[in-house]
Amino acid sequence: MLDYFPDDIKSHIIPKTRKDLYYHCLGCAAEHSIEKLLYVCPDCNQVLLIKDKNARSLNKIPGFLWQKIFDFRKMLKIPALKGIYRYHEFIGPSIPLESIVYLGEGHTPVVEANNRLKQAVGLSFFYKNDGQNPSASFKDRGMASALSSIKYLIDQNLVSDVIAICASTGDTSAAAALYASYLGPLIKSAVLLPHKKVTSQQLSQPLGSGAKVFEIPGVFDDCMKIVEQLSSKYSVALLNSKNAWRILGQESYSYEIAQDFEWNMKDKVVVVPIGNAGNITAVMNGFIKFYEANIIDALPKIIGVQSEHANPVYQYYLEPDEAKRKFIPVNTKPSVAQAAMIGNPVSMPRVIKIAKKYNALAGRRHVFFVQVTEQSIMDWQLAANKNGHIACTQGGGCLAGLVQAFDQGIVKNKETAILDATAHAIKFSEFQDLYFKSIIPEEYKINPNPDNINQPSLILPDDPDIIPSQKKRLKGNDFQKFVNDISDKVAKRLNLTLSV
User: Fold this and answer.
1) pLDDT tens by residue, 154-190
2) Which domains are seen in the chain, by residue range?
3) In a 3-state reduction of DSSP, which class is residue 117?
């Protein structure tokens, strides 16, 4: 019902498709068409970003009017515009609405920490629960973009019989398999996982979506090299964040935060975990685009968090002199933040380039990197979830990173932080189980705090003859005796007093 919309935005509510996007090489600056499957520059083999030849045309619409357009788009009932493509002009203006894949991703809730947790940390903060995406992680943002771009190529008869492939620590494989299955049989998916380095919950997801799953000895970085080899030799669609479309989709995280906080990014801090570095790349780039379009008038601080067991980005930025910095991949150690356990992130060149631009636009250093211990990741995750959140271990790492940044003076108590809970807590519940049972392997360097441990208590009646089961149902006096016995024992454990 377009007549219901204000006149000044009516012509902008339904976005128009324009073919202005192209691949830009971060190595040799070559430009390549987006109308083919491409992941690295064919000239120099460097990673790509997708750029807009007419990005300046976005400035023809004043920032305040963009805000109004995005706010009113919330009312639309068009599925293609319900998710990340609410921001179509900034994410994928070359993708027509009929090619957009929407499975319910994006616009995840921002949940404020309660007073007890704020006091424990020292400042106000929120969690953005990206675990409430369809496959239960933030990866769905990038996958909606990547698969929409592939569907566009299929719709234009530019590709056919697509085999989509990815390496994963768990979340990427779940998202890739889910979105590929939705487009089946046009697309088939295959995923490579490091053997015994993925939780059983995460392993079950691509299997359930029908993907071909291959477990490979080693770590994620080994799997990544294999899929890179496959994508260079065979006609496959690479769905890791090396795929520049993934970065575009994940920029929606920044756009949503800006809209959630009514476009006011002053005194805001956005904390994200770093694994393959695609997410922090997208978050920075998204805020830059909105800043350059005058939709926001300030850039928030960005804090990237890494575990001391997988810290190549943190190590790179330890050198204060930019000219002396040298990126050196690291051998990872076991981490409860499994999704970030990557020693050679493919998006590192993107991080270096975009962080430099981000700091320049901010007029001062505004991108920071902190390192946290495995102990702090687990303890802060448990603290968050005991206070009403559903943070995964990466979300625990973000909270540990915020505490670290606050202690270092990077963050001030007048600022408000938004933390990325990248996946649902259930995906990493195995680590909680190991922690609570005090059997977490030594290589994680985590000593369970007894105050954090929570285990179920089995309560049995004194009389073994009145223990019910599915086969043996109690009736009459025996059942009443069972109820009285157990309820008295529960009341004693809870220190309950009789009601008057």
Assistant:
1) 999 999 889 999 998 889 999 999 999 999 999 999 9
2) 2-106+138-246 (3.40.50.1100), 110-135+251-452 (3.40.50.1100), 464-492 (no CATH)
3) helix
